[in-house]
Amino acid sequence: MFILGEKSSGSFARKESKLKSSSLSVQIQTLFSEIKSTPQFLKASKLFKIETSPIWQFPIPQEPRTELELIKAIVAVVRTKSCPTLFSSVEENLVGIESRVEAVNSLLCAGLNEIQFIGIWGMGGIGKTTIAKILFDRISHQFDFSSFLSNVRNNEEKSGLVHLQEKLISRILGKETKICDVHEGATMIKRLLYHKKVLLILDDVNHLRQLKYLAGKQEWFGFGSIIIITTRDEHLLVKHGVTRRFEVQGLHTDEALQLFCRHAFEKDKPEPSYLVLSNHVVNYAKGLPLALEVLGSFLHGRGPSAWENALGKLREVCNAEIFETLKISYDGLDDKEKNIFLDIACFFIGNDKVDVTELLDSFGFYATIGLDVLVERSLLTISDAGTLEMHDLLQEMGLEIVRRESPDEPGKRSRLCSLGDVDHVLSKNTGTEAVQGILLGSADSADTGLHLNAKSFSMMKKLRLLMIQNHVHLSDDLEYLSSELRILQWWGFPLQSLTSLCNLEKLQEIEMRHSQIEYLWKGKKPLYSLKSIDLSHSLNLLMTPNFSGSPYLECLVLEGCIQLYEVESSVGFLERLILMNLNGCKNLRLLPSSVSGLKSLKFLYLSGCSKLEILPEGLGHLDSLEVLNVSGTVLRELPSCIGLQKLKELLFFGCSGPPISMLLSSFAGLHSLTTLQLSHCNLLEGAIPNDLGCLSLLRKLHLGSNQFVSLPESLSQLYRLEFLSLEECRNLKKLPKLPTGVHVNASNCISLQIVPDPEKHCTFLSWASFINCFTLAKQGCNSVAFTSMIRHLQEVSQYHCEEARKTLFHFVIPGNEIPEWFDHQTVTPSVSIHLHPGRRSNKFLGFALCSVFAVHERCQLPPVYPCEYDITCIVKVDGEELYKKPVFSFDGMQGRGVSDHLWFHYENSPPSYRHHVERAEWQQIEFSFQVKGQGLVVKKCGVRLVYEQDVEEVNQSNANISDEALEFPRCDDGKAAVVSHAISKRGVPHSHGGGSSKRSGFVYMELINTFIDQYTSEVHVSHAISKRGLPHSDGGESSTGRGFVKYGSVCFDEERRLKRLKRH
């Protein structure tokens, strides 16, 4: 954002002269012309592309009376323009969109304090979603929570309404959440959002149930909330009581010509020799934006004769439906590209590009170049997440092309993907050689009681894809499937085996989740193309098949197969196997010794195999193994770890066998280990091997809920350690010297007495949670907390690089006296600091904060249950909200009190904020702390704005803090507090997230991850961080759900695991 400083020249310089009596708009244009000549504006215009979207199309809130007020208004508008956006590329190459956006925006202005439902309706491809995306980018920063649920119709059809509710709830909570049914989901959404100011956009709604269970009534949301719905069906809006509706019309002729030219000629006007031809195209498209883009891309770079030829086709169907217009681009594809387009339109929208490319290549379609052609011709888009996306009209065009192959008999079509067609063909046995693919989605077949004739497949000689994603009934045994079959996906498969099937040499994937399979086949079956088997949650599966005929298998998922007792020894032939997931196989007692042949195995999940006692010795020599999860097992012995040189994660959570010290006497050989999970392993004193320090790459160490009294001194040698979880270690008395920068969660370590003293050691704790560690507090650790913060300030002031300044200080400990060093204190949850022009101009570093919080104890009926408490910080600058983010969260038991605790916090201000503080360009900064959770209050607050001079002074003096003043009173009744901090026109830094560790005690959320989740939806996190200028988070992980798989829970596959690691 550009700032007009005192060195600026011209009539817009800082002065209070009145605006002249001439037209205000003329004066605005004059001033803006002068502003545009300044270096600040030129730099900002390049950075934020201000000139490509005229600033004057944004309303100025009120008529300015002075030039200074006018400049402030301009700056406010530019600030809005330069906000990071979720759909940053949406506004590129758009024409005529601004008037439509403003029309919808005028509906929003009709009731600012109301809970508003707005409907945007019109035909497909007319621009409804584009309008909604632009509105989302421009106003989402004004809300407590914002979310854009795209493609509601398609996502419900593909995954069900419960999945959409889970997606929304997961965004609200910032973590993956599962629900049982739509009623539970609706209740949770209402409970989570009724007190928040929400912006929710539901894109492409086509059924009333979607509104009923995603945004039921106004009472679901807090005041000022806005719910925007895009749909093709106006009557759906009427039925839901949406009175404010906007119908999107097509583009005017001049707008349509301009949009077409941008795609056909990459400029706003046609070449003179193409003017007449261009007008013909525009006339045919009838103002439909998508048709103009598709035709423009199709004709781009072609000569006049090609244009004439294409227009000849258009003239033959001059009054045809949009289908005919779009089909012109399809007709320009070769046969392989047409097959790619139809496969995607029928089966693969929303799927991962890499996976689909590999599959399509197996059909000989040359998908890499084919997909590029489709993208170039505006027939396909690739999302930021790498998934295949297609506009509804284009998908409908593809479906119509398939339908026209045989209008009256679906069995003669190449692809079947609707319930009616699949039911007709498979129940009446009308399939033919024409059928290449069948998809019966989970939403289609739910509760239909569909009965299929097994003989229906006998005539489908060219069937390549069979995807049935829900339970159906078969009248007979399945005796035949095409030898061309690549994908066999049949959830809830009703037969006991596939023994009767043969000639499936081209089969690449078997996915039969929740099936009735007892065994796949007997003996050797030649499946040399098979790469993946997923029989997860097949409750009747007894043993694995003979794998000797599937040497190229890469993924084996048998999670939740509770009757599985044996893994066939032929698994050792799978030299290319990368992932083996046996989580939750409760009857599995051992693995075959032949697993030593799994030379490529990287991920081995055995969590929840509660009868597994022994691992084969050969497992210790798997050179490629990176993750070994044996949580929740009863292992009596481990293999030699000599060969596990690449092992990165070793997870023992909740192992109930012999002590770990008997299983793992040494860490020698585990030089690549980055995560070690030993929580809930009943570790006694001395049980942790003394050579722990040899794990030189270890970053995360989980030791919570164990019985040891002390930790090995070698812990100090783990120089790369980032997170140490010790919560609920109730016998722990002493922490050894720790590596610099480690995040420590020792909540509920009630016997803890000694922590490293920063005055005696060269290292100190910069992030620590000692909630309910009252013994430690009585030993004077509150002075350690304050001294550590001062040491942190000294460290940060010494290193001026940005990486050093990103470090966050966070320290929580029992106590109720705020040190006098915090020079702005109140006994109410509100602090205000005002800056004046004559203040000192030392270099501003950041702000330090100390507060006292507690949870009041209350009588609770029914009995207590776990709950989460949040304290959220709202920051305002000169009365305008800058951002809102959680400060920290912790878990407790509903109704049980938590005594007074001190929270010390410091974070550096970003350079842009420091600039504003030092130049007095902000007059007031306000911090408001909202609490969530019954009985939670913030009792006191102290703030200090930190300058370099403060650090120099504190180097020479001791903090004035009294240990004798500490008391621990019982929590009395009181209202939940809302702290309202005000810090003047000084930098308000964005938070850099600390680690969190979560058990029955407390958890501190990663500040940066939660902040990003508020403003991004389906955008890559690193992109959002770079756009906001925020530091990446190095936060820790929950000891029950992050970084390892808890036994008994659903294990993530390799892709989910990698995404989770990336997110953390």
UniProtKB/TrEMBL annotation:
Q: What class of enzyme is it?
A: hydrolase
Boundaries of every C-JID domain copy: 813-952
Boundaries of every NB-ARC domain copy: 98-268
Start and end residues of each Disease resistance protein Roq1-like winged-helix domain: 335-406
Under SMART domains, the record lists: LRR_TYP
What Enzyme Commission number(s) appear in the record? 3.2.2.6
Q: Which GO terms describe its biological process?
A: defense response
| Source domain of life | Eukaryota
Q: Which Pfam families match?
A: C-JID, LRR_1, NB-ARC, WHD_ROQ1
Reaction(s) catalysed by this chain's protein = NAD(+) + H2O = ADP-D-ribose + nicotinamide + H(+)
Q: Its Gene Ontology molecular function terms? A: ADP binding; NAD+ nucleosidase activity, cyclic ADP-ribose generating
The alphabetical list of record keywords is: Leucine-rich repeat, NAD, Repeat
Which InterPro entries does the entry mention?
Apaf_helical, C-JID, Disease_R_plants, Leu-rich_rpt, Leu-rich_rpt_typical-subtyp, LRR_dom_sf, NB-ARC, P-loop_NTPase
Q: What is this protein called?
A: ADP-ribosyl cyclase/cyclic ADP-ribose hydrolase
Native organism: Rubus argutus
**Which lineage?**
Eukaryota, Viridiplantae, Streptophyta, Embryophyta, Tracheophyta
